[in-house]
Structure prediction request, 265 residues.
Amino acid sequence: MRYEMLGPLRVRDENTYFTLHPHKVEIVLTVLLIRADCLVSPEQLMQEIWGEDLPRRAVAGLHVYISQLRKFLKLPGASGNPVETRAPGYVLHKGDDQIDTQIFPELVEEGRSLLREQRTDEAASCFSRALALWRGPVLGRSSDVTGAQGPIIDGFSIWLTEIRRECQEMLVECQLQLGRHREAVGMLYALTAENPMCEAFYRQLMLALYRSERQADALKVYQSVRKTLNDELGLEPGRPLQDLQRAILSGDLHLMSSPPAMSDH
Prediction:
Protein backbone atom coordinates (compact mmCIF):
# COMPACT_ATOMS: atom_id res chain seq x y z
CA MET A 1 0.00 0.00 0.00
CA ARG A 2 1.13 3.54 -0.69
CA TYR A 3 0.05 6.72 1.09
CA GLU A 4 0.24 9.90 -0.99
CA MET A 5 0.15 13.37 0.60
CA LEU A 6 1.98 15.44 -2.03
CA GLY A 7 -1.37 16.62 -3.32
CA PRO A 8 -4.86 15.66 -2.12
CA LEU A 9 -4.55 12.79 0.37
CA ARG A 10 -5.14 9.36 -1.16
CA VAL A 11 -4.23 5.73 -0.56
CA ARG A 12 -3.15 3.43 -3.37
CA ASP A 13 -3.51 -0.35 -3.26
CA GLU A 14 -1.92 -1.79 -6.39
CA ASN A 15 -3.59 0.23 -9.16
CA THR A 16 -6.66 1.36 -7.20
CA TYR A 17 -6.86 4.73 -5.43
CA PHE A 18 -8.97 5.39 -2.33
CA THR A 19 -9.82 8.77 -0.83
CA LEU A 20 -11.26 9.75 2.53
CA HIS A 21 -14.29 12.03 2.40
CA PRO A 22 -14.96 12.86 6.07
CA HIS A 23 -12.54 15.77 6.59
CA LYS A 24 -11.93 15.08 10.28
CA VAL A 25 -11.04 11.43 9.58
CA GLU A 26 -8.64 12.67 6.90
CA ILE A 27 -6.97 14.90 9.50
CA VAL A 28 -6.51 11.92 11.82
CA LEU A 29 -4.91 9.85 9.06
CA THR A 30 -2.68 12.76 8.04
CA VAL A 31 -1.31 13.24 11.56
CA LEU A 32 -0.74 9.51 12.05
CA LEU A 33 1.13 9.36 8.72
CA ILE A 34 3.28 12.36 9.59
CA ARG A 35 4.20 10.60 12.84
CA ALA A 36 4.25 7.09 11.32
CA ASP A 37 5.54 4.42 13.74
CA CYS A 38 5.43 6.96 16.58
CA LEU A 39 2.89 7.39 19.34
CA VAL A 40 0.39 10.23 18.84
CA SER A 41 -1.63 11.33 21.86
CA PRO A 42 -5.39 11.94 21.79
CA GLU A 43 -4.69 15.54 22.84
CA GLN A 44 -2.50 16.10 19.77
CA LEU A 45 -5.12 14.63 17.45
CA MET A 46 -7.93 16.67 19.00
CA GLN A 47 -5.92 19.88 18.67
CA GLU A 48 -5.35 19.17 14.97
CA ILE A 49 -9.07 18.49 14.45
CA TRP A 50 -10.65 21.25 16.54
CA GLY A 51 -7.87 23.60 17.62
CA GLU A 52 -8.24 25.06 21.11
CA ASP A 53 -12.05 25.14 20.94
CA LEU A 54 -12.81 21.50 21.78
CA PRO A 55 -16.45 20.37 21.67
CA ARG A 56 -17.95 18.82 24.78
CA ARG A 57 -17.78 15.27 23.37
CA ALA A 58 -14.39 15.60 21.70
CA VAL A 59 -13.00 12.33 23.14
CA ALA A 60 -16.02 10.35 21.99
CA GLY A 61 -15.80 12.02 18.58
CA LEU A 62 -12.15 11.06 18.24
CA HIS A 63 -13.00 7.41 19.00
CA VAL A 64 -15.55 7.49 16.18
CA TYR A 65 -13.00 8.92 13.74
CA ILE A 66 -10.41 6.29 14.70
CA SER A 67 -13.02 3.57 14.12
CA GLN A 68 -13.92 5.01 10.71
CA LEU A 69 -10.23 5.22 9.79
CA ARG A 70 -9.66 1.58 10.73
CA LYS A 71 -12.57 0.54 8.49
CA PHE A 72 -11.14 2.61 5.64
CA LEU A 73 -7.68 1.03 5.98
CA LYS A 74 -9.04 -2.51 6.30
CA LEU A 75 -8.46 -3.38 2.66
CA PRO A 76 -9.67 -6.68 1.15
CA GLY A 77 -7.28 -9.51 1.91
CA ALA A 78 -5.31 -7.50 4.47
CA SER A 79 -4.49 -9.08 7.80
CA GLY A 80 -4.70 -6.85 10.84
CA ASN A 81 -4.86 -3.08 10.75
CA PRO A 82 -2.05 -0.51 10.59
CA VAL A 83 -3.68 1.69 13.27
CA GLU A 84 -2.98 0.41 16.77
CA THR A 85 -4.34 1.73 20.06
CA ARG A 86 -1.36 1.98 22.39
CA ALA A 87 -1.72 3.78 25.69
CA PRO A 88 -1.82 6.69 25.92
CA GLY A 89 -2.63 7.17 22.20
CA TYR A 90 -2.42 5.69 18.71
CA VAL A 91 0.28 4.48 16.30
CA LEU A 92 0.11 3.94 12.55
CA HIS A 93 2.52 1.15 11.66
CA LYS A 94 4.11 1.72 8.27
CA GLY A 95 5.45 -1.80 7.78
CA ASP A 96 6.25 -2.36 4.09
CA ASP A 97 3.93 0.44 2.99
CA GLN A 98 5.28 3.55 1.27
CA ILE A 99 4.65 7.21 2.13
CA ASP A 100 5.45 9.70 -0.63
CA THR A 101 6.40 12.41 1.88
CA GLN A 102 9.22 10.14 3.07
CA ILE A 103 10.36 9.20 -0.44
CA PHE A 104 10.51 12.83 -1.59
CA PRO A 105 13.11 14.19 0.90
CA GLU A 106 15.18 11.01 0.46
CA LEU A 107 15.37 11.65 -3.30
CA VAL A 108 16.27 15.31 -2.69
CA GLU A 109 19.08 14.31 -0.32
CA GLU A 110 20.36 11.76 -2.85
CA GLY A 111 20.36 14.44 -5.56
CA ARG A 112 22.16 16.87 -3.26
CA SER A 113 24.90 14.31 -2.63
CA LEU A 114 25.28 13.64 -6.36
CA LEU A 115 25.56 17.37 -7.01
CA ARG A 116 28.31 17.70 -4.42
CA GLU A 117 30.16 14.92 -6.26
CA GLN A 118 29.66 16.90 -9.52
CA ARG A 119 27.57 14.07 -10.99
CA THR A 120 25.29 16.74 -12.36
CA ASP A 121 23.27 14.74 -14.89
CA GLU A 122 22.43 12.08 -12.29
CA ALA A 123 21.55 14.77 -9.76
CA ALA A 124 19.18 16.45 -12.23
CA SER A 125 17.44 13.11 -12.83
CA CYS A 126 17.06 12.61 -9.07
CA PHE A 127 15.58 16.08 -8.53
CA SER A 128 13.20 15.57 -11.46
CA ARG A 129 11.95 12.27 -10.03
CA ALA A 130 11.45 13.93 -6.63
CA LEU A 131 9.40 16.79 -8.10
CA ALA A 132 7.34 14.35 -10.21
CA LEU A 133 5.87 12.97 -6.97
CA TRP A 134 3.97 16.24 -6.44
CA ARG A 135 0.36 16.37 -7.66
CA GLY A 136 -0.39 19.77 -6.14
CA PRO A 137 0.03 21.56 -2.79
CA VAL A 138 0.68 19.36 0.26
CA LEU A 139 -2.59 17.59 1.12
CA GLY A 140 -4.27 19.71 -1.56
CA ARG A 141 -4.08 22.79 0.69
CA SER A 142 -3.20 26.12 -0.88
CA SER A 143 -0.63 28.31 0.88
CA ASP A 144 -3.28 30.79 2.01
CA VAL A 145 -4.84 28.24 4.39
CA THR A 146 -1.67 27.74 6.45
CA GLY A 147 -2.72 27.94 10.05
CA ALA A 148 -6.10 26.36 9.33
CA GLN A 149 -5.03 23.12 11.04
CA GLY A 150 -2.93 22.42 14.09
CA PRO A 151 0.83 22.76 14.49
CA ILE A 152 1.70 19.24 13.31
CA ILE A 153 0.05 19.49 9.89
CA ASP A 154 0.97 23.14 9.32
CA GLY A 155 4.60 22.66 10.34
CA PHE A 156 4.87 19.57 8.15
CA SER A 157 3.38 21.36 5.13
CA ILE A 158 5.76 24.31 5.50
CA TRP A 159 8.77 21.97 5.84
CA LEU A 160 7.90 20.02 2.70
CA THR A 161 7.15 23.16 0.69
CA GLU A 162 10.57 24.58 1.59
CA ILE A 163 12.30 21.35 0.53
CA ARG A 164 10.39 21.47 -2.75
CA ARG A 165 11.58 25.03 -3.39
CA GLU A 166 15.17 24.01 -2.66
CA CYS A 167 14.79 21.01 -4.98
CA GLN A 168 13.51 23.25 -7.78
CA GLU A 169 16.44 25.62 -7.33
CA MET A 170 18.99 22.79 -7.39
CA LEU A 171 17.37 21.25 -10.50
CA VAL A 172 17.72 24.57 -12.33
CA GLU A 173 21.35 24.88 -11.20
CA CYS A 174 21.94 21.45 -12.74
CA GLN A 175 20.34 22.53 -16.00
CA LEU A 176 22.50 25.65 -16.11
CA GLN A 177 25.64 23.63 -15.47
CA LEU A 178 24.66 21.19 -18.23
CA GLY A 179 24.10 23.98 -20.75
CA ARG A 180 20.32 23.53 -20.85
CA HIS A 181 19.65 27.26 -20.59
CA ARG A 182 16.73 27.44 -23.00
CA GLU A 183 15.03 24.47 -21.30
CA ALA A 184 15.28 26.26 -17.96
CA VAL A 185 13.71 29.54 -19.08
CA GLY A 186 10.06 28.41 -19.16
CA MET A 187 10.32 26.66 -15.80
CA LEU A 188 11.95 29.72 -14.26
CA TYR A 189 9.27 32.12 -15.47
CA ALA A 190 6.73 29.85 -13.74
CA LEU A 191 8.84 29.66 -10.57
CA THR A 192 9.27 33.44 -10.31
CA ALA A 193 5.50 33.86 -10.70
CA GLU A 194 4.90 31.26 -7.99
CA ASN A 195 7.61 32.68 -5.69
CA PRO A 196 7.67 36.44 -6.36
CA MET A 197 9.95 37.19 -3.37
CA CYS A 198 12.54 34.49 -4.09
CA GLU A 199 15.53 36.31 -5.57
CA ALA A 200 17.38 33.06 -6.34
CA PHE A 201 14.90 32.16 -9.08
CA TYR A 202 15.19 35.64 -10.64
CA ARG A 203 18.98 35.32 -10.63
CA GLN A 204 18.75 31.96 -12.38
CA LEU A 205 16.23 33.32 -14.90
CA MET A 206 18.43 36.29 -15.76
CA LEU A 207 21.40 33.99 -16.26
CA ALA A 208 19.43 31.50 -18.37
CA LEU A 209 18.11 34.32 -20.58
CA TYR A 210 21.54 35.89 -21.00
CA ARG A 211 23.06 32.56 -22.00
CA SER A 212 20.17 32.12 -24.47
CA GLU A 213 21.22 35.37 -26.20
CA ARG A 214 18.32 37.30 -24.65
CA GLN A 215 20.22 40.07 -22.88
CA ALA A 216 17.33 42.58 -23.07
CA ASP A 217 14.89 40.09 -21.52
CA ALA A 218 17.37 39.35 -18.74
CA LEU A 219 17.57 43.05 -17.88
CA LYS A 220 13.78 43.34 -17.99
CA VAL A 221 13.62 40.59 -15.36
CA TYR A 222 15.89 42.65 -13.12
CA GLN A 223 13.66 45.71 -13.48
CA SER A 224 10.62 43.57 -12.73
CA VAL A 225 12.00 42.07 -9.51
CA ARG A 226 13.35 45.47 -8.44
CA LYS A 227 9.88 46.99 -8.81
CA THR A 228 8.26 44.08 -6.96
CA LEU A 229 10.65 44.32 -4.01
CA ASN A 230 10.32 48.10 -3.88
CA ASP A 231 6.52 48.06 -4.05
CA GLU A 232 6.02 45.20 -1.59
CA LEU A 233 8.84 45.67 0.90
CA GLY A 234 10.58 48.94 0.13
CA LEU A 235 13.79 47.01 -0.60
CA GLU A 236 16.37 46.94 -3.37
CA PRO A 237 17.49 43.60 -4.87
CA GLY A 238 20.26 41.86 -2.98
CA ARG A 239 23.93 42.01 -3.92
CA PRO A 240 23.92 38.82 -6.09
CA LEU A 241 21.19 40.25 -8.34
CA GLN A 242 22.82 43.67 -8.51
CA ASP A 243 26.18 42.12 -9.40
CA LEU A 244 24.57 39.99 -12.08
CA GLN A 245 22.83 43.00 -13.62
CA ARG A 246 26.12 44.89 -13.81
CA ALA A 247 27.87 41.87 -15.31
CA ILE A 248 25.18 41.55 -18.00
CA LEU A 249 25.40 45.26 -18.82
CA SER A 250 29.17 44.98 -19.21
CA GLY A 251 28.93 41.80 -21.29
CA ASP A 252 31.04 39.83 -18.81
CA LEU A 253 32.19 36.68 -20.65
CA HIS A 254 32.52 34.79 -17.36
CA LEU A 255 28.71 34.58 -17.25
CA MET A 256 28.76 32.15 -20.19
CA SER A 257 30.64 29.52 -18.19
CA SER A 258 28.83 27.18 -15.83
CA PRO A 259 29.18 27.94 -12.11
CA PRO A 260 30.75 25.34 -9.84
CA ALA A 261 28.45 22.81 -8.19
CA MET A 262 26.80 24.01 -5.02
CA SER A 263 28.56 22.61 -2.00
CA ASP A 264 25.73 22.87 0.48
CA HIS A 265 22.03 23.76 0.90
Notes: Residues 105 and 163 are 7 Å apart (CA to CA). The beta strands are 2-4, 10-13, 16-18, 83-86, 89-92, 98-99. The first helix runs from residue 23 to 34. The chain is about 55% helix and 10% strand.
